[in-house]
Amino acid sequence: MPAGGIGGARFLQGLLAQVESDTEITVIGNTGDDIWLHGLRVCPDLDTVMYTLGGGISVERGWGREGETFTVKDELAAYGVEPTWFGLGDRDIATHLVRTRMLQAGYPLSAVTEALCTRWQPGVRLLPMTDDRAETHVIVDDPDGAVADDGSPQRRALHFQEWWVRYRASLPAHEIVLVGGDEAGPAPGVLEAIATADAIILPPSNPVVSIGTILQVRGLRDALRDSGAPVVGVSPIIGGRPVRGMADACLSAIGVETSAQAVGEHYGSRQHGGLLDGWLVDSVDDEVAIPDVIVEALPLLMSDPESTGRIAAAALHLAERLRP
Ligand code: FO1
Q1: How far away, in angstroms, is 193 Cα from ligand 1 center?
Q2: One pLDDT digit (tens) per residue for the chain, 324 residues
Q3: Pocket of ligand 1 from Cβ distances under 6 Å
Q4: CA nearest 208: which of 11, 17, 21, 30?
Q5: Which CATH number is associated with domain 190-322?
Q6: Model pTM greater than 0.85?
Q7: CATH classification of 34-128 is 3.30.420.40, yes or no?
Q8: What is the DSSP string of 305-319?
Q9: CATH 3.40.50.10680 residue ranges in the chain?
Q10: φ and ψ at 284, to 5 degrees?
């Protein structure tokens, strides 16, 4: 299950509650959000899945650790050290210190993630989409108003985290690019997990900067299409609005309307070269129809573990129905 961010982690909680204890779930985590900060490697989507399923997540924030303090962040700010806009928590920093030390000792990110998960026991196999460098950047008009020689706004590439956290995705994105994406290869185990899956679920993560990023890794899109497993997606858009986060800002950057219909079409039907065999949409979007994709409508708001469990069960049942 390719997953990113808070929506993916929350969906996984529901999924884990639905399956038999001997069911193996492999999560392919988005690493396009990853960033070097103060010399530390931060992997937000991997950490959000690991902390959420391992019981260490800050529930009110949806990211970082519960019971967090930000003393180091404040001390760095007191030194005037930038960036100050990213909330590095003291407990969270321990994760980044372990990760950075292991990366610098030559371990690939997949081995680092496995080591970190030994502590957290998330109950899934968490694989980064790639061990290679691939970072999402967003092309915007220079926020400081710089202009080019011809008087037009100077365009700049911001790291995704700066666009997302510092500017709250408020700067219109001309383009979203995965730097390193054309060389990035799948991490060990990723293609095999897809090839041997009984079902593949695209959770309600951001279709552009989470699911879309993962699909840019070399070979992933083809592996999904060639897999014998049915692919069922869960719409992250309910009634024309993203449930959480700012998927609408990302969708408009790629010219896709913010709707369950448009995102389903964007993923496409597997029979026509796309990804989906099944598409879960919210009850308010029950008129969604996508040729050669089975669409099911049900309440999609993951407001508590029970409702999330129902959504995960619906995705599994739809995959069961679709299995050849
Ligand atoms: N999101 C914010 O909106 N503000 C933050 O200060 C922030 C800090 C942060 C630290 C560690 C981490 O793993 C995630 C963090 N996030 C923060 C969330 C992060 O930007 C998003 O989870 C993803 O990158 C988008 O899915």
Answers
A1: 27
A2: 777 778 899 999 999 999 998 999 999 999 999 999 999 999 999 999 999 999 999 999 999 999 999 999 999 999 999 999 999 999 999 999 999 999 999 999 999 999 999 999 999 999 999 999 999 999 999 999 999 999 999 999 999 999 999 999 999 999 999 999 999 999 999 999 999 999 999 999 999 999 999 999 999 999 999 999 999 999 999 999 998 778 999 999 999 999 999 999 999 999 999 999 999 999 999 999 999 999 999 999 998 889 999 999 999 999 999 988
A3: 4-5, 33, 42, 44-45, 47-48, 63-64, 86-87, 92, 161, 164-165
A4: 30
A5: 3.40.50.10680
A6: yes
A7: no
A8: HHHHHHHHHHHHHHH
A9: 190-322
A10: -70, -15
